[in-house]
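stage 2 :: seqdesign
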């Protein structure tokens, strides 16, 4: 999840407040078993979004069972003794809603978008699979094959997917961000149903989960339903995670991936801070602004200079994900035009940062970036699902949804000088990992 998209997306709330349109704050409480519940009332339409987030992702896995968090996500749809396989999804579909799930490095989440009057039913079914999931060998064998095929489709058969996987494996040595969320293929091939069951028993507990409800609901009624269905589930002893600190990098790392592709690609990843302390981590906000100056709107610096003016690249981009439980990367990437090497494009991407480090950005550019981001995110934040996602991400990464307003203030206070300072501070080769895609002949093309 990109913090600059989340945080700047939230900035439009401040715009509303300044114009007299006050949004009701979310309400939060804990059940006796330790489960946290956050409710955001939004009465514009008779619908609700119900999400259950578990603070367990691929970073909590160990060598030999990588990918198990995602495999368990698949198993969560195989049913319980009370509600057989497919019951939840079929129920949601009959109600005219939709449901799904997703696994991340830091968390796993399950959601339903349903009419408001159906909230209690999906809450009952979600609570049931939190504690009564069944693990049948035949179901596991089916799903592990699905996951392996998903890995082939998303990574093994996708040049960009291979590059991203190689980049992270090179950038992180000790931290579990080293391995992919979907897992290494060999681990998937040797995984057992007991591995999935053990993961479920270890992490899937009310005291390791947060429920988020956004929509045309009453927070008091949501609390009653949460207590009725989730409150009776016993908590588990959740082991404290051991520190997994990435060693200090002392020099540029390089990795090349050969794969069938039409165009080469170069990706530069710099180690930068993640958000830990809302008050103290000032550089995080300036890095967000820097990423947006580079690639936050149609005429941002990278595309304006490298694609339109100099025609050195077919496409370029910048990304910064600071809302994470683990270390963060600031990524620059580009596909060079014919006749331009990846080495030349790498130097030009670096120079774009160097120019900001040397000359900074203007106050006018900074304000234009902020206002464009505010206006572009109004529609997104108008979505109930978008609100639920933002709340969940902030909760899972330890910041908490109550800090959103303060983060908006911090972003609004970023100065051109701060952007220039972070451009000078973090972009040296000592913290850099470079991954390049080396195209080989496509299978369906004759080799001359």
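stage 2 :: out
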């Amino acid at each position: 999840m990109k913090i600059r998209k989340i945080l700047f997306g939230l900035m439009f709330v401040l715009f509303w407040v300044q114009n007299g349109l006050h949004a009701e704050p979310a309400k939060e409480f804990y059940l006796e078993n330790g489960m946290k519940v956050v409710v955001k009332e939004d009465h514009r339409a008779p619908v609700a979004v119900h999400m259950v987030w578990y603070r367990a992702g691929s970073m909590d896995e160990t060598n030999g069972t990588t990918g198990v968090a995602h495999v368990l996500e698949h198993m969560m749809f195989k049913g319980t003794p009370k509600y057989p396989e497919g019951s939840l999804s079929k129920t949601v579909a009959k109600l005219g809603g939709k449901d799904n799930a997703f696994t991340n490095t830091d968390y796993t989440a399950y959601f339903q978008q349903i009419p408001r009057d159906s909230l209690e039913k999906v809450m009952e079914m979600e609570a049931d699979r939190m504690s009564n999931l069944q693990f049948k060998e035949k179901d596991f064998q089916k799903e592990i094959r699905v996951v392996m095929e998903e890995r082939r489709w998303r990574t093994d058969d996708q040049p960009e997917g291979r590059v991203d996987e190689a980049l992270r494996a090179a950038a992180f040595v000790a931290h579990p961000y080293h391995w992919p969320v979907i897992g290494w293929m060999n681990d998937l091939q040797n995984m057992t149903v007991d591995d999935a069951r053990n993961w479920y028993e270890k992490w899937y507990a009310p005291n390791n989960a947060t429920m988020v409800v956004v929509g045309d609901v009453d927070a008091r009624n949501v609390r009653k339903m949460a207590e009725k269905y989730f409150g009776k589930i016993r908590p588990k002893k959740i082991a404290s995670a051991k520190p997994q600190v990435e060693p200090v990098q002392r020099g540029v790392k390089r990795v090349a991936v050969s794969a069938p592709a039409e165009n080469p690609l170069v990706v530069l990843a710099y180690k930068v801070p993640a958000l830990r302390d809302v008050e103290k981590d000032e550089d995080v906000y300036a890095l967000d602004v820097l990423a947006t100056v580079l690639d936050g709107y149609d005429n941002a610096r990278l595309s304006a200079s490298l694609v339109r003016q100099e025609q050195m690249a077919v496409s370029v981009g910048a990304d910064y994900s600071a809302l994470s439980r683990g270390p963060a990367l600031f990524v620059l990437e580009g596909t060079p035009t014919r006749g331009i090497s990846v080495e030349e494009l790498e130097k030009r991407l670096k120079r774009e940062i160097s120019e900001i480090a040397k000359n900074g950005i203007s106050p006018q550019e900074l304000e234009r970036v902020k206002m464009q981001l505010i206006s572009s995110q109004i529609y997104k934040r108008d979505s109930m699902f978008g609100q639920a996602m933002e709340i969940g991400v902030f909760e899972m990464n330890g910041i908490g949804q109550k800090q959103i307003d303060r983060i908006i203030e911090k972003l609004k206070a970023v100065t051109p000088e701060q952007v220039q300072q972070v451009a000078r501070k973090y972009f040296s080769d000592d913290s850099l990992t470079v991954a390049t895609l080396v195209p080989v002949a496509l299978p369906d093309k004759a080799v001359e």
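stage 3 :: structure notes
- The radius of gyration is 23 Å.
- The first strand starts at residue 27 and ends at 30.
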